[in-house]
Every structure is written in structure tokens, then in C-alpha cells.
């Protein structure tokens, strides 16, 4: 099946992974997200910043259709993942979410062992044929999340017994284990102390080599540290999107400038 | 004067004491109410309680002494008058205490605390009293009957002439058999109904289905018993027992078990529903975000997380099944026998307690006293189940603190 001699497809940094056009989200009567157009690049860290309630998390949850789980939420417009509309009738959200992993604001390890937490995704998607293969996947994911050395001797202990920072890295390992193409992170460091935050940020930088990472953050310093692209949301609008360096040093929109200099937010 | 009139008069006096105390406090304060340590309402309440509590104490003491036979039964009026005098004295004392420095608020707080403690004490003492009377009568029973025959005897044939065989084993077997069938019906149905309501149903459906299921919990058990006797029993006999040659009894373990299972469905489903709802949404999001289907999420994440609580709910349902009487009386019959055939009539501990106490026999014969031994055995079983269930439920609660 695999043609080892196939010339590797030239992956430039500018290849578009996700392309959103005129995305609208309504929560009941509330128009939460208005006309969002954005192109998210492959193998890039994209940060969404903006004040609370600006719609950045809402947009993130549109990409893997997590908003489907909220009965009153309604999404319009187009979000293309590899040129395929994720809101197409034929797309199964379950398959989509296997391709688009997600890490949440609060660490949410399952009440299972560390091993079973990481093996959860591979098991439900049938990614391993035998125990040895599964062991390999788990170890690789835990190494990928920089957690292996800390937990390798206690894989059978409950994941809920780890510290907050370790729990969050366990959740990242759990998402990485299904080998997603995109990883969505919804304020992954907001419940962590500065040291754990630094570890997770370092991890994000490494994960970028494998897939596209989209991170929602409240911390502008974090956005500046980890991302190459930044999008600023305000009151449901995507105000400005561009290279992180440009957004933070030469914002074009007055609202962006006001936010990054701490005047609105 | 009967005691009830004395009680009524005391409440009137207390109300009067409240009004007097309050106006007296206003008068003491002068133009500036803030000069008082406590607000006038507290002064009023302190006077009212000062009138009420001594009188109530007198009445309670009088009632107990009369029950104990220390006082003769025609002393009612005297007790009433003593109580009234105590109330008036208390009222006078209360009014005298009112002053700017008097800390009426603290006094009232203490009295309220005492009242609350008294109420919980009454609940505990009553329970202890019931248990003690059971233990006492059971002791009586074991003095006239061999305990080994009671606990290990496999024959239950009470005779009013005496010389009865009173072995608990057939009754215990019937109890366990009926309860097991009931749980076999109630646990899957209740649990799956709870999963549907908490994980799948839209808010509108849930708003309709949940109360509809809980209506079942409001049906008196005697009505379930009638249903077992008139509908389910004959149905099982005509369509299962007789064609299959398994007996022709209108009452059977299966009948009682099925109907009791239906009775327990709302119990299991509403407890499990609460427990499943207590599983944090973040776990569901995590599982769905990894690409699980809703049923995989329920099976592999939500139910394992809720399992200890569900086990607790099942144990609570089991202790209700074991203690249930009316459905078994009408559904399972009264024949004390040990059989594996679920279509045969059997009986349970609760049914036999009823039938031993409703007979005409002498209250000191082992045939009657055995009811207390049965009751105590039942109490110990359900208590143990409840303790285990509550322990498990509590342990589960700590998990998500």
C-alpha cells in the first residue's frame, strides 16, 4: 500500500489546511459569530485572541463540529478541511473529530488508567491490531506529549491522580494518539501554573512539525510566544488576521491595537 | 381542662408574650431603636419562648408520668393548670429581663439551636426505641425457641397448637428470589431509561418523559399488588405455567418479581439519572472530541465514571425490594417452600410477619414472637445494604470534588 519511493509531496508552509468562508453561528437568537473568513495553514500554530465572549472558542468548536452537541447552536457558511466542507451532509462528525483532535480548557482525563486514557482513541478507531502495536502508539503519544519519563512506571495508575500540568499533557497525548491532522486547543493553559504552561508551550512548538495547531488563548504573551499566525476576534467578528509579528507590532485595525495595548478587553 | 386546651392556651400566652415583649422593648429604647442591643422582635421572641418552653416541659413531663402510671389519669386538669402557671411565670420573667443591655438575640439563637437539636434527638431516639423493642422481643423468642432451628431450619410450618417448625431459610430464599427477579427487571430498564433521558433526549422530551416515569413511583404498592393478583398472575398462569407444564398457581415468584420490578423502575431511573448528570460535561466533550460516537461515550466514559453511584442506587433498590410487602402478599402467595421454579408460589419474610401477627394466637407463643425475629433479620439485612450503598455513593461523590 505504501509506496516508499513516492517522492515526498512538497509541503510548503503556506499550504491551506482549513478554509472558512462566511461562517455564522447563532445561539438561539444570539448572533455569536459573524462573517468569519479565515485560512488556517498546515504545520503552523494559529492563535485566536480576543476578549471574553468574542466568539474565538465558538469558532474553534465549529471546526470539529463540537457545537453540534449544543442543541440551540446553529452554524451557517462553509468550513473546508482539505477542500471538503465539514458541514456537508455526508460528513460524519465522528470521523471528522478523529481527524481534528481537541484539547480542552480544563484537563479532563477519563477516570481510567493513564494507559487506557491514551489508548482510548486508538481503541475506538481500531488503529492497533494487537497489544504490542497499541503499546507502541501509547508510548509514542506519551513521548510526544513529553510525559513518558514521568509516567512510564505507573501506566496503570488512574489518570486523575496526576498533577494539573501532567493531566493536561495526558490529554494532549490522548489527542495525539489518534494521529489527528489538526489539533484544536481551547485555552489549554488557563488552569495551569507557569511551569506547566511553559512545558505545554514547548510541546505545542514540537507538535507543529506534525500537524496544524489552532490555539485559543487569553494571554497575548502566549499567543506571541507560540504562534506564527494570529487572529483577533471582537464581538463576534474576525477583526484582523495575519502574521503574529505583524499583529503585535503593526496592527492595522484600531480595535486590535486597543486590545493588545490593554485598552479593551 | 384537657391537656390539648392547656397546650392551646400556652401558645396564646406565648403569642401575647411576643407582642408584650416587643412593645416593651420599643418603650425601653425610646426614640432611638439602635440603643437596644437586640432588635425589638428578638425581645418579643425571647419573652414568647420564655413563656412557652417551661409550659411545654411541664406538659411533656406530665404526659410521660401519666403514661408510666406514676400519676393517675384524672390528673389532667392539674397538669394543665401547672403548665399555665409555668407559662405565666416565664412570661413575667421574660418581660422583667427586657432592657437596653439585655442580649435577647443571642438568647433566642440558643433557644432555636436547642429546639433543632431536640427534633433530631426525637428522630434518633424513636429509631433506637424501635430497634430496642425488636431486639427485646427477639430475645424473648429465642428463649422459647432454638436459634439454630430458626436460622438454619428449612421448614416453615407454624401450628397454633404448638410444636411448630419455624425455619427462616425458605422465607429468606423466597425473599431473595423475588428481589432478584425484581432487580433483573428494574435495573436494566431503569438504567437505560436514565441513559436515554440524560444523554439523548432533547429537553422537551425529557420534560415529558421524566415526570411520566415518576408517576409510577406515586402508585401505592397495594395497587401494584392488585395488578399482580388480577392481571399478571393469571396471565402468566394461562400462557406460561400451564402450557409449559410448570404448575398452575395464580400466584408465583415471577408475578411478584415482575410487578415489583416495575415498581422499582422509577426508583432506579431517577437515582441513576441524577448520578449520570453529575458526571462532568468535560468528560463527554473529551470523548466526543476524540471521535467517539454517543453510545461509545456512554459505554466507555460516562457509565464507568458513574458506576459506583449506580451500584449504590441498585443496592438501595434492592433494600426496597427486600422490604416490600403488599406486592408479594398478593402476587407471590403464602406457601413457604424452596423451589427453583419461578412459576410456583413462594413467600417472603415480610408476608410471614404479617400472617404471624394477624392470627389469633397467644402473644407469648413462639408462633407470634417469631415475627420479631423475622423483622430484626430483615432490618439487619436492609441496614447492611443501605450502609454499603451509602458508603459507595459517598465515595463516588468525592471523586469529582
TrEMBL record, chain A:
<keyword id="KW-0813">Transport</keyword>
<keyword id="KW-0547">Nucleotide-binding</keyword>
<feature type="domain" description="ABC transporter">
    <location>
        <begin position="18"/>
        <end position="260"/>
    </location>
</feature>
<dbReference type="InterPro" id="IPR003593">
    <property type="entry name" value="AAA+_ATPase"/>
</dbReference>
<dbReference type="InterPro" id="IPR005670">
    <property type="entry name" value="PstB-like"/>
</dbReference>
<keyword id="KW-0067">ATP-binding</keyword>
<dbReference type="InterPro" id="IPR017871">
    <property type="entry name" value="ABC_transporter-like_CS"/>
</dbReference>
<dbReference type="GO" id="GO:0005524">
    <property type="term" value="F:ATP binding"/>
</dbReference>
<dbReference type="Pfam" id="PF00005">
    <property type="entry name" value="ABC_tran"/>
</dbReference>
<dbReference type="InterPro" id="IPR027417">
    <property type="entry name" value="P-loop_NTPase"/>
</dbReference>
<keyword id="KW-0592">Phosphate transport</keyword>
<dbReference type="InterPro" id="IPR003439">
    <property type="entry name" value="ABC_transporter-like_ATP-bd"/>
</dbReference>
<protein>
    <submittedName>
        <fullName>Phosphate import ATP-binding protein PstB</fullName>
    </submittedName>
</protein>
TrEMBL record, chain B:
<feature type="transmembrane region" description="Helical">
    <location>
        <begin position="176"/>
        <end position="196"/>
    </location>
</feature>
<dbReference type="InterPro" id="IPR000515">
    <property type="entry name" value="MetI-like"/>
</dbReference>
<keyword id="KW-0997">Cell inner membrane</keyword>
<protein>
    <recommendedName>
        <fullName>Phosphate transport system permease protein</fullName>
    </recommendedName>
</protein>
<feature type="transmembrane region" description="Helical">
    <location>
        <begin position="250"/>
        <end position="268"/>
    </location>
</feature>
<feature type="transmembrane region" description="Helical">
    <location>
        <begin position="6"/>
        <end position="21"/>
    </location>
</feature>
<feature type="transmembrane region" description="Helical">
    <location>
        <begin position="369"/>
        <end position="393"/>
    </location>
</feature>
<feature type="transmembrane region" description="Helical">
    <location>
        <begin position="208"/>
        <end position="230"/>
    </location>
</feature>
<dbReference type="Pfam" id="PF00528">
    <property type="entry name" value="BPD_transp_1"/>
</dbReference>
<dbReference type="InterPro" id="IPR011864">
    <property type="entry name" value="Phosphate_PstC"/>
</dbReference>
<feature type="transmembrane region" description="Helical">
    <location>
        <begin position="77"/>
        <end position="99"/>
    </location>
</feature>
<dbReference type="Pfam" id="PF12501">
    <property type="entry name" value="DUF3708"/>
</dbReference>
<feature type="transmembrane region" description="Helical">
    <location>
        <begin position="111"/>
        <end position="136"/>
    </location>
</feature>
<comment type="similarity">
    <text>Belongs to the binding-protein-dependent transport system permease family. CysTW subfamily.</text>
</comment>
<keyword id="KW-0813">Transport</keyword>
<dbReference type="InterPro" id="IPR035906">
    <property type="entry name" value="MetI-like_sf"/>
</dbReference>
<keyword id="KW-0472">Membrane</keyword>
<keyword id="KW-0592">Phosphate transport</keyword>
<dbReference type="InterPro" id="IPR022182">
    <property type="entry name" value="PstC_N"/>
</dbReference>
<feature type="transmembrane region" description="Helical">
    <location>
        <begin position="42"/>
        <end position="65"/>
    </location>
</feature>
<feature type="domain" description="ABC transmembrane type-1">
    <location>
        <begin position="172"/>
        <end position="389"/>
    </location>
</feature>
<keyword id="KW-1133">Transmembrane helix</keyword>
Amino acid at each position: 500500500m505504501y509506496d516508499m519511493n513516492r517522492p515526498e509531496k512538497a509541503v510548503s508552509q503556506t499550504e491551506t489546511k482549513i478554509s472558512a468562508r462566511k461562517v455564522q453561528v447563532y445561539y438561539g437568537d444570539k448572533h455569536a459569530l459573524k462573517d468569519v473568513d479565515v485560512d488556517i495553514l498546515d504545520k503552523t500554530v494559529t492563535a485566536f485572541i480576543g476578549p471574553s465572549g468574542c466568539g474565538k472558542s465558538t469558532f474553534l468548536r465549529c471546526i470539529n463540529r463540537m457545537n453540534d452537541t449544543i442543541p440551540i447552536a446553529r452554524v451557517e457558511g462553509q468550513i473546508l478541511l482539505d477542500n471538503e466542507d465539514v458541514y456537508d451532509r455526508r460528513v460524519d462528525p465522528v470521523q471528522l473529530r478523529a481527524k481534528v483532535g481537541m484539547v480542552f480548557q480544563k484537563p479532563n482525563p477519563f477516570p481510567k488508567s493513564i494507559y487506557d486514557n491514551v489508548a482510548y482513541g486508538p481503541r475506538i478507531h481500531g488503529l492497533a491490531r494487537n497489544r504490542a502495536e497499541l503499546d507502541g502508539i501509547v508510548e509514542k503519544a506519551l513521548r510526544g506529549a513529553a510525559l513518558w519519563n514521568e509516567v512510564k512506571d505507573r501506566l496503570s495508575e488512574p489518570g486523575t491522580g496526576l498533577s494539573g500540568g501532567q493531566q493536561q499533557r495526558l490529554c494532549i497525548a490522548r489527542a495525539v494518539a489518534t494521529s489527528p491532522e489538526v489539533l484544536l486547543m481551547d485555552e489549554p493553559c488557563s488552569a495551569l501554573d507557569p511551569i506547566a504552561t511553559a512545558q505545554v508551550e514547548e510541546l505545542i512548538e514540537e507538535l507543529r512539525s506534525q500537524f496544524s495547531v489552532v490555539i485559543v488563548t487569553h494571554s497575548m504573551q502566549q499567543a506571541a510566544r507560540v504562534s506564527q499566525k494570529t487572529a483577533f476576534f471582537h464581538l463576534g467578528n474576525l477583526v484582523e488576521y495575519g502574521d503574529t509579528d505583524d499583529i503585535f507590532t503593526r496592527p492595522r485595525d484600531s480595535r486590535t491595537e486597543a486590545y493588545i495595548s490593554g485598552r479593551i478587553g | 381542662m384537657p391537656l390539648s386546651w392547656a397546650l392551646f392556651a400556652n401558645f396564646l400566652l406565648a403569642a401575647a408574650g411576643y407582642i408584650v415583649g416587643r412593645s416593651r422593648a420599643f418603650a425601653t429604647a425610646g426614640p432611638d431603636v439602635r440603643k437596644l442591643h437586640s432588635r425589638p422582635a428578638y425581645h418579643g421572641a425571647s419573652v414568647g419562648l420564655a413563656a412557652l418552653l417551661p409550659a411545654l416541659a411541664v406538659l411533656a413531663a406530665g404526659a410521660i408520668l401519666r403514661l408510666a402510671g406514676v400519676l393517675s389519669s384524672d390528673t389532667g386538669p392539674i397538669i394543665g393548670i401547672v403548665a399555665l402557671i409555668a407559662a405565666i411565670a416565664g412570661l413575667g420573667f421574660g418581660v422583667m429581663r427586657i432592657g437596653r443591655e439585655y442580649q435577647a438575640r443571642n438568647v433566642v439563637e440558643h433557644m432555636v439551636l436547642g429546639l433543632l437539636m431536640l427534633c433530631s434527638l426525637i428522630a434518633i431516639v424513636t429509631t433506637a426505641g424501635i430497634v430496642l423493642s425488636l431486639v427485646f422481643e427477639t430475645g424473648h423468642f429465642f428463649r422459647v425457641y432454638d436459634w439454630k432451628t430458626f436460622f438454619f431450619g428449612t421448614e416453615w410450618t407454624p401450628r397454633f397448637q404448638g410444636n411448630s417448625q419455624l425455619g427462616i431459610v425458605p422465607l429468606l430464599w423466597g425473599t431473595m428470589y423475588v428481589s432478584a427477579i425484581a432487580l433483573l427487571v428494574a435495573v436494566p430498564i431503569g438504567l437505560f431509561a436514565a441513559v436515554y433521558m440524560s444523554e439523548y433526549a432533547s429537553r422537551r422530551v425529557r420534560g415529558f418523559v421524566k415526570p411520566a416515569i415518576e408517576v409510577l413511583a406515586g402508585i401505592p404498592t397495594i395497587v401494584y399488588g392488585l395488578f399482580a393478583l388480577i392481571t399478571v398472575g393469571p396471565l402468566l398462569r394461562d400462557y406460561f405455567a400451564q402450557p409449559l407444564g410448570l404448575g398452575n398457581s395464580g400466584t408465583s415468584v415471577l408475578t411478584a418479581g415482575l410487578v415489583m420490578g416495575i415498581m422499582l423502575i422509577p426508583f432506579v431511573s431517577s437515582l441513576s439519572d441524577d448520578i449520570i448528570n453529575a458526571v462532568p460535561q468535560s468528560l463527554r466533550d473529551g470523548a466526543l472530541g476524540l471521535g467517539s460516537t454517543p453510545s461509545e461515550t456512554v459505554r466507555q466514559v460516562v457509565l464507568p465514571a458513574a458506576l459506583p453511584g449506580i451500584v449504590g442506587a441498585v443496592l438501595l433498590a434492592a433494600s426496597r425490594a427486600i422490604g416490600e410487602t403488599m406486592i408479594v402478599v398478593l402476587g407471590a402467595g403464602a406457601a413457604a417452600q424452596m423451589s427453583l421454579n419461578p412459576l410456583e408460589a413462594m413467600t417472603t419474610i415480610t408476608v410471614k410477619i404479617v400472617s404471624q401477627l394477624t392470627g389469633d394466637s397467644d402473644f407469648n407463643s413462639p408462633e407470634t414472637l417469631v415475627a420479631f425475629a423475622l423483622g430484626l433479620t430483615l432490618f439487619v439485612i436492609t441496614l447492611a445494604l443501605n450502609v454499603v450503598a451509602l458508603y459507595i455513593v459517598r465515595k463516588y461523590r468525592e471523586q469529582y470534588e
